[in-house]
Amino acid sequence: MEFFRIKKDIPFMRHALVFNVISLITFLLAVFFLVTRGLHLSVEFTGGTLVEVSYSEAAELEPIRQSLAADGYTDVLVQHFGSTRDVLIRLPNRDDIDSNGIAQRVMDTLQKTSAQAPQLRRVEFVGPQVGKELATDGAMALLLVVIGIVIYLAMRFEWRLGVATIIANLHDIVIILGFFAFFQWEFSLAVLAATLAVLGYSVNESVVVFDRVRETFRKKRNYSTEQVVDHSITSTISRTVITHGSTQMMVLSMLMFGGETLFYFALALTIGICFGIYSSVLVASPLAIWLGVSREQFVKPKKEKEEAVV
Question: Which CATH architecture has domain 12-40+130-297?
């Protein structure tokens, strides 16, 4: 399906060096913020207590935050869970309070500061060891996804395209982490799931472009490698606009109307999709050229028939 058609190929590869310099600068900035500021990990990774309470009417979150902050919980996350009457409270571990007594202390604080009588629905304690295991499992999941993508692209196309795609998509992941490190947004399991989703989503765009590259190599025998890539990107722009535009509208609706539960998940997806469009097209393609992708790797040379000598 084409929303519009561009008749003349856009010379993207003429500015390939500029695109990759921009990517390198943003990548290095993201790494710098990750090293200097670090990620603000959620309770799932650091350990802590999750308390779910229910009110008879819609609950205001700001008074709950203020009351807990006055009780010494300055780094607490309070959000609606399911409905405006249900509230989920995430609290970090404290050395001066036993984990078994945290829930009771929270309930006492809420009962003193609220006209409504909250009901305790659920209490979960996440130990530091469990959080460490979750962080390790998350890193392992990311590594396995990367290996799987490289193997798939190497079998589907050519290993150079697989390496170029992974470098470009890991650039997206580091950029997302850099944003979360710079602004100190909470990095939770939902955000980790969003980064993995972005990785797969960006790979899909690269596969579309590289599939068109392979097709163009076979059809346009007189095109150079740069011209083949320019033609492939230009011919898939309409598909890119339709696919990413519709996806971005859905993600933005989650970002604006999904509440605090989905906010950082949707925010990570928004950042990843924006940078994913850029990197999967304008970063992966130049990298593939610099790695030496050529027509001979996709088109078998024709064997000249030997003429019989009479």
Answer: Up-down Bundle (1.20)
* 186: enclosing H helix or E strand: strand 186-187
How many other CB atoms are there within 10 angstroms of residue 170's CB atom? Answer: 16
Check whether domain 48-126 has CATH 3.40.50.720, yes or no? no
Is the pLDDT at 263 greater than 70? The verdict is yes
Asked whether residue 4 carries a pLDDT value surpassing 70, the answer given is: no
Give the total residue count for the chain. 310
Rounded to whole angstroms, the Cα distance separating 48 from 67 reads 19
Q: Which of 236, 151, 148, 156 is nearest to 200 (CA)?
A: 148
**Average pLDDT of span 258-281:** 88
Tell me the pLDDT band of 98, cut-offs 50, 70 and 90.
low
Residue from 194, 83, 253 nearest 186 by CA: 194
